[in-house]
Amino acid sequence: MSNIQKCYQCGLCTGICPMRMVSKMSPRNAIYSNNIYDIPTNDVWQCLTCELCSSQCPQGVSFSDFALEERIGKTLADVPHEGVFSSISDLMSMLDAGKVTLLEGAEKSSYGYFPGCLDFHNLFFGLDDVDFTEIAESSLKLLKHKGIDPMVMQMKCCGHDQLWQGNKELFDRLVEYNTKYIEESGIDTLIVSCAECYRTLKKDYDLDVEVKHISELLGDVEFDAKSDATVTYHDACRLGRHCGVYDAPRESLSNAGINIVEMKHSRKDSRCCGVSSLMNCNEITKALRVTRMNEAEDTGASAMVTSCPKCLAHFNCLKKDESTDYKFEVVDLSVLLARQLNGNQK
């Protein structure tokens, strides 16, 4: 249940809203129209649900919760990438079983690793310089290096995008299947490397297992190679502001000897990439990615590291744009850390 009735119209949310930088979106006006006149607003669809406004609101109002409530049961007219990911999730929900990866793990373990929909990212994003399955492969290498041999969880899509696009019925079907699968697996800890999977499984499911982001397990890992590289870390909205995981990724990087330089906006002030549950991939949100990439470039780092596959995809997509000339690498956290194993410094 949203708490927008607590809003006293100070306007701080609109002042710091990323979408306000590139559009006329106003969380304050949207709340006012709802509270006073009960008028629906298109701003609930423009909202990135990045939680930047919520993290700063003196009344603790969550515009993201309000936007989600307003979206439930309604349909987004134009889903980017031709809605193919939503269609895949819909198909998954109709099948008796699913297989999200060809990777294999232990037959039985108290740990389970869920890679999410990385294989499908490879199929449909069309980025020659990014191998999304390498994220899962790297995650398994890191876990085994730590002494964890997990089961690879052949669950269906966690349903993150479907929930935030308002398709609660589809989300509930995915939750029902995945919850049963997890219970029958016998694991105690479910590990993910995707920020969106982490947020969804930890906060939107009701699981009897502990959900961990892989970075939360790597702070004490002994790396064979100590890198002297300097990187900057992009806090994905779902892992950072939604779940409060800021230190673990940085501690993992530092533990591997990697130097970190922060962007102008970092941690709870980090700027969103603008994709938002695959609801925004256009010229307007491209401007947000340019702003963020410029911040990364200003640090002088050799790489920008992230833990969200969608951030990874869309920042790298921007690098391909002829209007840009970014020299630094945009790389997933697990991939970069796995390079430090077996004396492989990169």
Helix share of residues? 40-55%
CATH architecture of the largest domain: 3-Layer(aba) Sandwich
The number of distinct structural domains comes to 3
CATH topology of the largest domain: Rossmann fold
Q: Can you give the mean pLDDT?
A: 89
Counting helices, strands and paired strands, the structural category is alpha/beta
Number of helical regions: 15
Give the N-to-C terminal Cα separation.
Answer: 47 Å
The helix-strand sequence is HHHHHHEHHEHHEHEEHEHEHEH
Strand content: 5-15%
Number of beta strands = 8
The largest sheet has its strands arranged as 2-1-3-4
Global shape: globular
CATH class type of the largest domain: Alpha Beta
User: Uncertain spans, ≥5 residues at pLDDT below 50?
Assistant: none
Largest sheet: 4 strands, parallel
Rg calc? 20 Å
Could you characterize the architecture of this molecule?
With 346 residues, the protein is of the alpha/beta class. It has 3 domains: 4-71, no CATH class; 81-217, Rossmann fold, CATH 3.40.50; 230-343, Rossmann fold, CATH 3.40.50. The chain is 41% helix and 8% strand. It has helices at residues 12-16, 27-37, 43-46, 52-56, 63-71, 84-94, 118-125, 133-146, 160-164, 168-185, 195-204, 247-255, 283-298, 309-320, 333-338; strands at residues 111-114, 151-152, 189-192, 210-213, 230-233, 259-260, 303-306, 329-332. The chain has a 4-stranded parallel β-sheet, with helices on one face. Strands 6-5-7-8 form a 4-stranded parallel β-sheet, with helices on both faces. The longest helix is centred in the middle third of the chain and has 18 residues, at 168-185. It is globular, with a radius of gyration of 20 Å.
